[in-house]
Amino acid sequence: MRSGRGVRVRFAPSPTGEPHVGSIWTALFNFLFARQTGGAFVLRLEDTDQKRLVPGAAEKIYQALDWYGLTPDEGPQRGGPFRPYVQSQRRELHQQHARQLVEQGNAYYCFCTTERLEQLRQAQVAAKRAPRYDKHCAAIPLAEVSRRVASGENAVIRINLPLTGTVVHHDIIRRQVTFRYDQLDDSVLLKSDGFPTYHLANVVDDHVMEISHVIRAEEWLPSVPKHLFLHRAFGWEPPQFAHLPLLLGSDRSKLSKRHGATSALSFRDEGYLPEAMRNFLALMGWHPKDDREVRSLEELIRDFRLADVNPSGAIFDRTKLDWLNGVYIRSMDIDEFVRRVEPFWHQARLAQVSNEWRRAALMIVRDRMRRLSEVDDLTAFGFSSVWDEQRRLFDFGTMATRHRTAAQAKGEIDWFMDWLDTFSEPWNATSLKINALAAIAAAGKKNGDVLWPVRVGLTLRPASPDVFDVMQLLGKGETRRRLRTFLT
RNA sequence: GCCGCCAUCGUCUAGUCCGGUCUAGGACGCCAGGUUUUCAUCCUGGUAACAGGGGUUCGAAUCCCCUUGGCGGUACCA
Predict the structure, then answer these.
(1) Closest CA to A11 of A54, A55, A46
(2) Strand B closer than 7 Å to the CB of A448?
(3) Is the CB of A413 within 7 Å of strand B?
(4) What's phi and psi for A38, nearest 5 deg?
(5) Residue A426 Cα distances to A219, A223, A414, A432, A453, angstroms
(6) Quick check: A312 CB within 7 A of strand B?
(7) Residue A408 falls within a domain, yes or no?
(8) pLDDT tier at A5 (50, 70, 90 boundaries)?
(9) Does the nearest atom of strand B lie within 7 Å of A455's Cβ?
(10) Is the CB of residue A391 less than 8 Å from the CB of residue A460?
(11) What distance in Å separates the CA atoms of residue A242 and residue A219, rounded to the nearest whole number?
(12) What is the CATH number of the domain that holds A411?
């Protein structure tokens, strides 16, 4: 850790497309670690590859972070003491550092053409050797280098790695990892367009921004020795590293589009709650000591331990996410629920009903909901227009069971309607239930024989909410209208 | 190919660093039962795993080696 300052972590995505859920997962662990240590959570946009930039991608990243509740303490939007937070705007700094490395002999200009590099690679692959740059340009005399650079010849700057020796890396999650220099390639640090590559920009910015812990995905592990080399070449104390496992698809390969929706924001659109997503994501790779898996953000922040993250990759499985989302939906304050489900509701239908009606309908269907987007389907029974339409298509054959014919079922509805005519108590589920059950018992009937046909008549579905809840929601007039119409 | 990481129920995982308390615990899913007018919720119970082989040790899921498998990296992408 650096003197004077505490923990500072960064989330450093490239604005090259839709923010990925795996990316948000990395951001979450950075965020949790920052919050629990009282440190700063920094967003830095790594946009040094001009070819891959996608317009609007940065905004999507901000949006996703906000939606997941991971708003950065410092970043392109909010600013901060280490601005700019957009890497392409730090190009001068990167170029200076690249030149410094050349002066020190830790890097060198390379004038090789892509054709030469391609030939070299092919020859190496054919000889079954690891494809690596052969340091051809490292041998060019300094005077010649200066002349060629000054003349504007196309050049890159490459890292000048030792040919022998090993690097020992201590990872917070993986403990000790050893690399051999003779297996490493002299990668490009500064491209011919003047932009740095990830290796350079990342190391320089992490140091200058006083990042104390680099928490990133496992795919970066192989480049650790290069990053360590660079920090040391500059005479800097490297940050601590923690390499997270990869989020996997059902076939155990890195989670990608072909495994279904992986866009971080698509989960919002599918009706998942950010608090459920956070909780679920936190459970991938990390596990609370007390096995209590449903926990608030505060509890996650309090109990999360970076060193306890499981180093093996985790399959992103929707089944448990759906369950967790349901848990959060059921535990939510009802007014909050009404508010948050609104954007998912069919707007034309919504316009037909009052706020009280909405609330009542949602209370009835809440236990059945796993995603907010299910609201339309779950409450469809409440709308007369939907009922009228479905009534025309209804197959009375489905009313018949082993124990009764469709005609008998209709008879029970008839009986129930007669009873309803005598019902004069307040029209609410409790009162209806008490009185109806008593009447059914008095008539020597079974609850199911009467209530099942009635419920199907009212909702036109074999599975639906409690019949008395439905009647209360529909009101007396609509209940009678539906039953009457149903029988004709 | 080379380098690296990883390896416990179908899935997420606890246990592994500091061997015995592990006839391997929890959660999701699934199955069964209960509540019940259906579904869901809720409650109870069940199902199911230490990749394989060698060591070390009185004793190994835990330590070591090998094999196998999976994944990642191997770009003037990040």
Answers:
(1) A46
(2) yes
(3) no
(4) 70, 20
(5) 65, 73, 22, 8, 23
(6) yes
(7) yes
(8) low
(9) yes
(10) yes
(11) 12
(12) 1.10.10.350
ipTM of the complex: 0.95
Q: Supply A208's token pair.
A: 């200058």
Question: Is residue A363 one of the residues assigned to a domain?
Answer: no
Supply A243's token pair: 């390499």
Q: Whole-prediction pTM value?
A: 0.94
Of A204, A225, A248, the domain-final residue: A248
Are A391 and A244 in a shared domain?
no
Q: Is the CB of A290 under 7 A from strand B?
A: no
Q: Is residue A325 part of a domain?
A: no
Q: Is the CB of A317 under 7 A from strand B?
A: yes
CB < 7 A to strand B: residues 361-380, chain A = 367-368
Q: Please give the structure tokens belonging to residue A456.
A: 């199907």
Q: Looking at residue A402, what is its pLDDT?
A: 64
Closest nucleotide to A283, Cα to C1'? B12
| Cα A67 from Cα A247, distance rounded (Å) | 20
Helices A334-341 and A355-365 meet at what angle, rounded to 10? 100
The structure tokens listed for A79 are: 């600013």
- Find the domain containing A438 and state its range: 383-487
Q: Which residue is nearest to nucleotide B70 (CA to C1')?
A: A252
Count, in order, helices (H) and strands (E) of chain A: 20, 11
DSSP one-letter string for A238-294: PPEEEEE--EE-TTSSBP-GGGS--BTTHHHHTT--HHHHHHHHHTSS---TT----
C-alpha distances in Å from residue A449, one per residue of A19, A420, A468: 53, 16, 15
* Number of domains, chain A: 2
Which strand B bases fall within 7 angstroms of a protein CB?
Answer: 1-8, 10-16, 25-29, 36-42, 70-78
Tell me whether residue A191 is one of the annotated catalytic residues: no
CB-based contacts of A435, cutoff 8 Å, min separation 6: A423, A425
A441 residue type, one letter: A
A291-312 tens-digit pLDDT: 999 999 999 999 999 999 999 9
Question: Active site residue: A135, A191, A257, A433, which one?
Answer: A257
Please report, for the domain that includes residue A92, its CATH number.
3.40.50.620
Question: Is position A240 within any domain?
Answer: yes
pLDDT digit string, tens, across residues A13-72: 999 999 999 999 999 999 999 999 999 999 999 999 999 999 999 999 999 999 999 999
Domain end point (choices A193, A218, A248):
A248
CB A287 within 7 Å, strand B: yes
Q: Give Cβ neighbours of residue A230 (< 8 Å, ≥ 6 apart).
A: A101, A106, A159, A199, A200, A203
Strand B-contacting residues in A 415-434, CB cut-off 7 angstroms: 433
